[in-house]
Structures are given as C-alpha cells and as structure tokens.
Request: fold
Amino acid sequence: MAYTKHGRVTSQVVATPTQVVSYSLPVSKVLFQALRSNTGFVVIGGRNVRASSGEQNGVSLAVPATSTPQMQEFTNVNLMDLYIDVTVANEGVAYVYE
Reply:
C-alpha cells in the first residue's frame, strides 16, 4: 500500500493543543512532516500534548531553517486521537496516510 491521502494542520495558538482531525479517522499508517516554513518546534501526541520547553510530552519535530524537515510515522492510529502543539503560532505539520 502507498500513502494515498494527505492533509495539513497548523496551530493558531501556542500552548493550546490542536486536534489533527475532528472526526474518527482510523488509519493503518500516517507520516507527519514539519512544515518547511516552521521556525520553532511542533510536538505530536495526545490531547494534553505540550511543546513548551521543559513540558514536552510528545514526539518533537524541529525545523532549523537550513535543514530538511523532520518526519515521524505512526501505525494503526485514529487521527482524531492525535494533537499538535507548537512553540510559534501558525506553524504545524503536513501528513500523508493510508
């Protein structure tokens, strides 16, 4: 199987987790990539995920301006159960899934 669907989610407010999707969407695989335009960190996790320094409690994706964005894959998850938090407003992730 190949990744056949895609999406993008950004968080408007720092320290406020943003749900990836608002409806039940079970997937066999999802690959998240930090947006190239990000200047801070994005953390992926559950509904209480935190990206703030000293509070990080999920999978962190950083994007230094001169490097390739980091990626993280999850298997057998419901996208509704995943959230992002950011250290800079209006930043986020793109994702592909099957």
In short: The domain at 5-97 is CATH 2.60.120 (Jelly Rolls).
